[in-house]
Amino acid sequence: MNYGYYSSVALVSSVVVYLLAFFAHAAEWASARRIGVAEPAVERELVTAGARSSASGSGSASTGVREPLVAGPDDELADRRIEQFGRIGVMLTVIGFALSVIGVVGRGLAADRGPWGNMYEFTTTALVCVVAAYLLMVWRAGLGWLGLPVTLLATVANGLAVTVFYVAVAPLVPALHSVWFLIHITAASISAAAFNVGGLLSILYIVKKRAEDKGEVRGYLARIPSSRRIDLITYRFHAFAFPLWTFTVAAGAIWAEYAWGRYWGWDPKETWALVTWVIYACYLHARSTAGWRGTKAAVIAIVGLASFWFNFIGVNLLVSGLHSYAGV
Q: Superkingdom, according to UniProt (predicted)?
């Protein structure tokens, strides 16, 4: 059986399905654009005739009274549409996830090794972990409202993998024949999933917080948790990911000693892994000790995610080093 062919078909199909899931979630957000929107305030002038007093004669008073918000006749229908599009989006995401798993497993069978020997394989494997983390949180914590950015990330990243990063099946280079490489890449994939979900939550936090500050929480933003709740969930994802990333860097150093005879050599990939570690360490430290919660912490988390992706893609494409075997 040509596992490599079926792996490629499954991964390309997953991109299409993730794109459809993104469209479904986009329709979910669009359907909510009028939910929670206040109609223009109508001021009524209430003229009340006062009783004539012996000193001032007749008097009148006027007060501006705003109409209370009343749900429009189409709100119930819109609410059903929102839920329907949301369910379709999650269902398509599950299908896309299943296709991604088939593609990753098929790639491993075709190569007769773990499917993480180059950028193409690590990208597809890491995206399986990202979507798995999202679906787990949908099931356990109702994070379906994160579907739009997650499916966008899955579409773009897997799309780049199958179009730009793809390389034919080949044996691992000698440097990768180590159990520590397996440990290193497994920890990196899991921490990548948590960092990416946390980064997407940070972006959503900033959007929600700005809407709250302006008093313009409307549309789909009115249906997701408060910015304070999003901030707490974001922190938990990063608090989970950071120890794993620390272990990833340490396991990479042990693997480097096995492969190249030194624990640390300031290779570009090693350096940016350390930079990413420092940024996330600053995030956790600032949030827990300096009181940098909310927007400031979210910005640091987004910078950390950008550093993570530059370490993975930018360093491989732009800088040569001992990790160049992982290039496209």
A: Bacteria
